[in-house]
Amino acid sequence: MSVDLKIIEAKQIAPPKTSTNAWEWAKKNLFNSWLNTILTFIASAVLFQIIYAVFGWVLTEAQWDVITENYKLFMVGQYPVAQLWRMWAALTTLTLMFGLSAGRFKGTMLRLSGILLIVYLIHLGAPFTSGSTKIWLATQISILALGYLIGHYFVRAKRFTLIGWALSIPLILFFIQGFGILPAIRTNVWNGLMLTLLIAVFAILVSFPIGILLALGRTSHLPVIKYFCIAYIELIRGIPLITIFFMAQVLLPLFLPTGLTIDNVIRVMLGATLFTSAYMAENVRGGLQSIPNGQYEAAKAIGLNPVQTTFFIILPQALRAIIPTIVGQSIAMFKDTSLVAIVGLVDLLGIAQSVKSNPEFLGRHMEVYVFVAFVYWVIAYSMSYSSRRIEKSLGIGER
Fold first, then answer.
1. What is the pTM of this model?
2. Which positions ≥6 away from 339 have C-beta within 8 Å?
3. Pair 204, 332: CB distance under 8 Å
4. Domain 62-79+189-399: top CATH class
């Protein structure tokens, strides 16, 4: 009798099983009342009409030859055809690093490498891809697979991968610019998506350490450093980015010594970096303020000095807490590169403006802007996806 009572009590205590049936979920969330049922049908009808119209236009009405015939312009602009091997070499370097990282670290890098592989396969099967381009694309796929195998099976690949990422940036710039060893390519032909990525990557990478230094300087007890950082951050954050671009292009040359010139692209990169670093500084300062005083006291108790406390205890926790805001600022900077078209540089959006103004492609502005928006979305979504994966791996937001 006592055994039966225990069984009955266990059944009463056991939580009810949750059904994973799609109809049960829909009945609970979409059709649980007459009002929700009506709203569900109305929303479904509107959504169906939107999807039907969009796909109908994309598949039957849109004339995508404006994209296929100008694809090189969208990607690398006026970069000389005879020197395109240098762009492929730079891309090969990046592909190898993604493959090594995917094989060694798995996780986020493996998924990003999968996205890169899909992009290569789509271009490989595209009808407008030339024979030489197909060979280069097949090479990229082979390099990606080779890098993955090396990273997966060789234990020491982790060290080489980290060193490789540090060396890949100057190597890619060497292929693009030449640095006097290869034939020089003037920056006025650095156009399209290549220019957009160069400006965005430079601004994001360089502004990150500058932002950390500014945030630490703002919390300094030295008045000179503290108020200089405060003045810089508040001044830059109060000025629109386009104003900084105009100042870099128009006013900066007036203050340079006679005979000294700075390239237009370099000036825009510096302006974007200075702008982004001010916002990065505020993000980092917010992370520093989120650290409880107990962390400082614990570090002091084990004998760490203020510098050690900051760089080994406080700063790692602060940066871990603000990963979402850092990535959000990076995505904003990537999208803000479209403003360089106003100051005379021809980025991806600038190429779109030129293509739709071509008399041969009049009336194709919708196709052009849809393509540009899709490119921006793919890159921004990849950055956001990486952020979510990193947050999940670090347990941010979990208790």
1. 0.85
2. 241, 242, 245
3. no
4. mainly alpha
